[in-house]
Structure formats: C-alpha cells, structure tokens
Amino acid sequence: MDTLSYVAQSAFPMTWLLVAVVGALIRTRRSTSRAQALETWQRWWAAVALGCGSLWMTISFLAIPDTMATAIGFARTPFEFEIAFANLGLAVMGLRAASPAASPRERLTIGLAAGMFLWGAIAGHLYQWFAHGDHAPGNTGGVLAYDLLIPAVVIILARRSGRLTAATNPVTAAVPLGA
Length: 179
Description:
Blueprint: H1 3-11, H2 14-28, H3 34-63, H4 65-72, H5 79-97, H6 104-132, H7 142-168, H8 170-173
C-alpha cells in the first residue's frame, strides 16, 4: 500500500469529527446564548460524529466485511458482523442524544456507554499494534483518535450542559448531574 493511500484510509474516521466541528461552528455563529451554543455543539457531535460515524461503520461492516477486515489487519471472521451491530447501537444512541428532548444526564449516559465500547476498542487496537505489529490503517491512526474523542467530547459537553442547567434552573440544581 502506498503512503498516500495509507494516510487517506487511516485518516478517514476523522472525517466525521471534522464535519461535526465545522457544522457546529457554522451553526453557533449566530447563537444568542452560551446554552444555545452548547446545545448546538452537543447535537452536532452526537448526530454526526457518533450517530453518522457509527452508522457508516455499520453499513461498511455489513456491506464490505472483507475490506473492513483487511483495513483492520485481520482475516475475515464473524467479528465483522458483530461489530456492525455494536456500531448500530452506537448510531441509535448518537441519534437519540441529538434529540432536543435528550437531557444532559441522558447524553452523559450515552457518552459513557459509547466510551465503554470505543475505549475498549482502543485497548484492542493498541494490543494488536504493539503485540503483533498491526499497523493496518484501520487499526492505528485516525481510528484511535476517533474512538477516544467521540465519547470524551459527548461526556464533556453533557457535563457542561448539566452544570449550566443546574446554575440557571434551581429546580434541577437539587439533583446535580453525576449524582
């Protein structure tokens, strides 16, 4: 595999993060309040980075499992089918977190659930990298940043939103986020 192809394949997961950031930046240019801007960031990150990114992975693992196995550096196994449906669960959670009805606590829970899967995947990628020298584009590079940042940003935004909500609404302050 040539260097340009490797870099393109390795960096592709970052596309979803970039689209979420650009979308949120464009939409928050006219935000009238910090709460409104924070809500916009949460919705873009949840819908695009977590929701669409995971839906893309679902479709990829179902439609082109051999290509996905090769991209990760594995031989084809039933693993691709299982990962497809784990990603479908993440996509559903991401789209739910993007709902205007989603509370900061719900978004925090979704971020933690996504973290359990994606941070576990990081551990697996790192193990394959260091124990077996797996430098396939789907095992190192962009996928590591994607798996780290998606849940971390969802959690951070949800915590900030919970604190902001508690500070501006005394009724919700009685049950602080994280309690």
